[in-house]
Fold this sequence. Notes:
Blueprint: H1 2-9, E1 18-20, H2 23-42, E2 48-49, E3 56-57, H3 68-78, H4 86-102, H5 107-118, H6 121-129, H7 132-152, H8 156-173, H9 176-199, H10 203-222, H11 225-235, H12 258-261, H13 287-290, H14 292-298, H15 302-309, H16 329-341, H17 345-361, H18 367-376, H19 391-410, H20 414-417, H21 419-438, H22 440-443, H23 449-455, H24 462-501, H25 507-526, E4 535-537, H26 538-542, H27 549-555, E5 563-566, H28 576-580, H29 593-603, H30 608-613, E6 616-622, E7 634-638, E8 646-649, E9 651-655, H31 658-664, E10 673-677, E11 696-703, E12 706-713, E13 717-724, E14 733-737, E15 740-742, E16 745-747, E17 751-756, E18 759-767, H32 772-802
Parallel strand pairs: 5-6, 9-10
Antiparallel strand pairs: 1-4, 2-3, 6-7, 8-13, 11-12, 12-18, 13-17, 14-15, 14-18, 16-17
Helix pairs in contact: 1-4, 3-8, 4-5, 4-7, 5-19, 5-25, 6-7, 7-8, 7-9, 8-10, 8-32, 9-17, 10-32, 14-24, 15-24, 16-19, 16-21, 16-24, 17-19, 21-24, 24-25
Amino acid sequence: MFMVISVGYFTPSIFEGKTLYQTDIRKGAGMGQDLNKHKQETGEKSLWSSRMFSGMPAYQISPSYASSSVLIKMRRTFEGWLPAPASYLFALMLGFFMLLLAFKIKPWIAVIGAIAYAFSSYFLIIIAAGHIWKVFVLQLIPPTLAGIVWAYRGRYLLGGIVTALFFALQLVSNHLQMTYYFLLFVAVFVIGRLFYDYKQKQLMQFAKATAILIIAGLIGFGANATNMVFTQKYTEQTIRGKSELTDNEGNKTSGLDRDYVTDWSYGIGETFTLLIPNTKGGASGSMWENHQKAVQKSTSDRNLQGFVANLNSYWGDQPFTSGPTYVGAFILCLFVFGLFVVKGYLKWTLLIGTVLSILLSWGHNFMWLTNLFLDYVPFYNKMRTVASILVIAELTIPLLAIIILMKIVENRRLIFEQKKAFYISLSLTAGIAFLFVVFPRLFFNFTSNTESAAFAQYTSDPAYVTAFNTLEDARVSAFCADAWRSIFIILLGASFIWLYSAKKIKPALFITLLAALVLFDLAGVNKRYLNSKNFVSKARARVAWELTDADGIILEDRDPNYRVLNLAVSPFQDASTSYYHKSIGGYHAAKLRRYQELIDRHLIKMNMNVINMLNTRYFILPCEEGHSHVHEHFHVQINPDTLGCAWFVNEVQIVQNADEEIAALTDFDPRTTAVVDVRFDNQLAGFSPQRDTMAKVEMVKYKIDEIEYRTTAESEQLLVFSEIYYDDGLSRWEAFIDGQPAPHFRANYVLRALKVPAGEHTVKFVFKPRAYKVLETLSMIFLWTLLLSAVAAAGWGVKKRFYP
């Protein structure tokens, strides 16, 4: 059934040889292109990328470790080996189905819950966007939680094996933010379970289960030891680590800056999208594209229609959005009913998880709680886009909804016995939606804060006032239509429950009708954001970024020693340039912190001294009339002042800290001067730079993780390289002079510098992270421990069942 539903949702596109055209997959292709090319040419994998941000570790770009290939095949098995994206839906349903079985929900009722979870709108939206690693983790969270539930219910072996297996699969899927949110909810669940077991006087069972789960977690972590250890060390060097700069302290944390964490904060009123998807207009885009009927209904004036049609359909206060978080109106109604009827720790655990998820999703709209978590909850400040924590609510709401549905199926008289609670639940869902229909402007402002500020300057112009009122009318119309839809869905589900409770329909028909209703409701909303329009031919998707004439002109330069700054795009949020060139820009959520600070202080201000020291040979610029090399809106300009791969300096400026170091780049000549932090002063002890006009350096070999130079000088010289300095304590670039290790240090805030003796020498830099082989071996040991334990447990289970 899950396979049929998964494939059916994407029919006919999935049978037409088409594939999803996903923005983040295209960005990923740009991010990892040089790594893929390197592996194809050499058969080796590299942990350094040369094409983004002048060079950075590849730990979170295209991680590939010894255990990962095995674990990924196991995840594909869990996905039924279906073609993507049907495989994603299948695994989402199967995982939640397992969780409901762990809670002893009957299988056919669990099917409804599986549909409700898998078709929660956010999941389909991120599939459309290409956030596939996030989807993988969301597939695996419910079965991991199922293992935890089984363990606490006394099925220690099953619980331990399932937890270890699916936790390992979560980690190899490598979206640690989703795993972190899962662990937050697990903490709430375990505390709730502790209180329950204390009251039941079964603390020994709790202790056994907890010990087994800790071991399971360690095994799952151990199977991904290489990735986890290198990621942790890398994190300290990225924007998720603490900055050395001391300005703007109020905005800083020991991880990401507060404003960066909360950029995408869910609005307080926007939370009603859980009930009514168009509470804030749905997705960003034009009104005509998303709400054509509402535009036509708002006015018959074609000119006004044209004005309104081109305005944004989303009126929330996130920068933009691909769609709302909608869990299903009837599912939400059941959840509310469950809060009144279900007793015990589980209800409180699910309620706390839901409320915490919602409050934290508000981000800067509920800053005191956000600050509390940023400052005191470990690792929380490493996560951005706080609105995505609603994935917890997307798990807890259908879970409690199906638990109460199970009680309704088992006790037909339940809604009559709990009549007051049932009517209150209808009032808090369908009733609130009806109030919104009757008094929409009483509850919501149908313009965003940004729009209100922009519109304020036109309030004296009657024509603009009429236009803005028409826009508001169109948005009210779209919102009310969706509110009526939710009311209908809730009342239809409630009528099915009444018919079943009054013994008018049989259980099988009742469950079938509810499953069809939930699927109709959620799939109908999801089709707004993921439909056949998102699919393209595989031939089109095969090339992530088309080669422009500007790219072709630059690629005529066969010298691997140059970088590109593409000003025809947003250069530091762009992956297209990295697909073909070494770029000083790029796209990545965990770029090196020092490089981000260089961007903020110098690169976005076009400090040419900094741009030149990064070996920027070419600019791609927006097209201007009169340029000969034009392709659509791009043209190429050569930078004659770039400093090349390396250069000798005859002056060193010692600074006392990071503040002075980055400030010194504002006005300095990188051709003659190197800015060096006092921490590296010992490497310059006794050294006095001397000008040598005959000194030469040339690159003689280039690989993304190995670079070789030949130098000639009449005296000892200081050589600065246009390559990024990196040392996290475990991984670093290692320097060699004539095959012998040589110390190097950081200069100009982000670059490498090295003292070179007089005469002719070969200088080599090699990136080979230390302890890599040890960690790879350790990962495989844990992986085989996991696999053998699973096989042994399965064999023991079969023996116990058939040969008791």
